[in-house]
Amino acid sequence: MDRKISLIIPVYNSSQFLHKTVKAVDDQKKESNWDLELILIEDGSPDNSFEVIEKLAEEYHYIKGIKLSRNFGHQIAVRTGLSYATGDYIAIIDDDLQDPPSLLPRFFEQLDQGYEVAYGIRKKRKEDRLKKIAYVSFYRFLNMISDTKIPLDSGDFCVMTKNVKDKMLTLHEQNPYLRGIRAWVGFKQIGLEYERSGRIEGESGYSLKKLIKIAKDGIFSFSSLPLQIISLLGNTGLLISILFTLFTIFRYFNNEIEVAGYTTIIILMMFFSSVLLISLGIIGEYIYRIYNEVRNRPHTIIEKTIN
């Protein structure tokens, strides 16, 4: 291939097996004759992942190493990698070989044929049943409510042209949902099905808290449904209030008003208090995100780089 390739891999707690990932990349580089730069972004790992990157960079001179000053999160780490990429074609894979480098030539062929983005569609996932159900449900829910059509069962694994990468980087969101941004920028895109492998070693760095954050970033960044829910709750509450008022007036004129009514009042107070708190929580989430944008802090702090 006569085009320069930038391969971005975010690294977290991968010191025990990162050499296997880089070896798989190097094997594919030789087989496909890539002009490659491999960008490894160490996202504040508690282990010695960056020391491993430094040693690997001595052996594989096309490696660029980036150490973040703390754990900023997977999406921010990938975005940082995009900002360092100089290739004509850019690819994003994970460090655990669940999206192996051997798949990339088939994806790059789509760019050669005129597509600007080729993204992976996970046909099968080697994860526990509960996680599979959660992922499938979330992707379909997000696709249903999103203002932008985000492909089902697609993750960050993809290849893109430099043009798309540059356009994605013009969006300076503090909480980026990259697969949504990739869909939002448009251009000619195609999805390719593949069977996702299991991790080569270790446990996923995605805790439940991190998964919930990514889900929230997707929902609040690409859908107005939460705000519409507030309107729906408000209209529902108004309808209930009108009906209850008419019911009370009817009972008043029929001399049916009793001193009793404690239960009804408590139920109504609890209902409307819950609606109010839910609404404030949703509005608060948007306000927090606006505040994050207004502060205009840098996405990351770079502690150290190699090459």
Provide tags for this entry:
8-stranded mixed β-sheet, elongated, 10 helices, Spore Coat Polysaccharide Biosynthesis Protein SpsA, Chain A, alpha/beta, 8 strands, 307 residues
Please tell me about this protein's structure:
Strand 2, helix 2 and strand 3 form a beta-alpha-beta unit. Helix 9 runs antiparallel to helix 10. The protein has two domains: 227 residues, Spore Coat Polysaccharide Biosynthesis Protein SpsA, Chain A (Alpha-Beta Complex), CATH 3.90.550; 71 residues. The mean pLDDT is 80. 51% of the residues lie in helices and 18% in strands. It has ten helices and eight strands.
Count of runs of 4 or more consecutive helical residues: 10
How much β-strand is present in the residues? 15-25%
Q: Give the N-to-C terminal Cα separation.
A: 23 Å
Q: Can you identify the CATH class of the largest domain?
A: Alpha Beta
Over the alpha carbons, how many angstroms does the gyration radius reach? 25 Å
- Give the beta-strand count: 8
What is the CATH topology descriptor of the largest domain?
Answer: Spore Coat Polysaccharide Biosynthesis Protein SpsA, Chain A
What is the spatial order of strands in the main beta sheet? 7-5-6-4-1-2-3-8
Mean pLDDT: 80
What is the 3D shape?
elongated
* Percent range of helical residues: 40-55%
Class by alpha and beta content: alpha/beta
CATH superfamily of the largest domain: Spore Coat Polysaccharide Biosynthesis Protein SpsA, Chain A
Low-pLDDT sequence parts: none
Keywords: Glycosyltransferase, Membrane, Transferase, Transmembrane, Transmembrane helix
GO molecular function: glycosyltransferase activity
Domain Glycosyltransferase 2-like: 6-163
Protein name: Dolichol-phosphate mannosyltransferase
